[in-house]
Design goal:
The chain is mainly alpha-helical. The protein has 2 domains: about 1-45, no CATH class; about 50-144. About 70% of the residues lie in helices and about 0% in strands. It has helices at about 5-15, 20-35, 40-45, 50-55, 60-65, 70-80, 85-90, 95, 105-144. The protein is elongated, with a radius of gyration of 34 Å.
Length: about 140
């Protein structure tokens, strides 16, 4: 590690005609700049080191890392818990309800159905986002 000698720099500047205070100030500024451009241990925190990347160097290491993520079969099993188009065909439509209720009752029932369907669609959307994120992370890990 190179060390900047401020005393020697100040003496050299004095010999070149600088006043004492100016020579010392210039030497201190140069030292501060030199120290500011060095990489410290704190700067290196969070940087991937060779030892961090070794587990991805072999097919076996990469396979072991990928085992942490959901497989296609895992995701398929999770999706089977949600309603399909066929499941939704069993719900009553507005036309089915019309003969049995007043307009206000139908409106209230439809709002309730709308809320439940919105919640289900939200769950489906959240699952799709989760699956997408998991796939992106897996691909990102593959590319590292």
């Amino acid at each position: 590690m190179a060390v900047f000698d401020t005393l020697r720099a100040a003496r050299t500047l004095r010999a070149a005609g600088f006043e004492d205070a100016k020579a010392e100030a210039v030497a201190e500024v140069v030292q501060a700049v030199a120290n500011g451009n060095r990489v410290t241990r704190a700067d290196m925190q969070g940087v991937a080191m060779k030892v961090d990347l070794e587990r991805f160097a072999t097919k076996e290491g990469l396979q072991k890392e990928l085992e942490r993520f959901a497989t296609k079969a895992d995701l398929q099993a999770e999706l089977e818990r949600f309603a399909t188009k066929e499941d939704l065909k069993g719900f009553a439509t507005k036309a089915d309800l019309q003969p049995f209720a007043t307009q206000a009752a139908v409106k209230s029932d439809l709002q309730d159905l709308e809320l439940r369907l919105t919640i289900r669609m939200g769950v489906i959307a959240a699952t799709a986002v989760t699956i997408g994120v998991a796939l992106m992370v897996a691909l990102n890990q593959l590319l590292l």
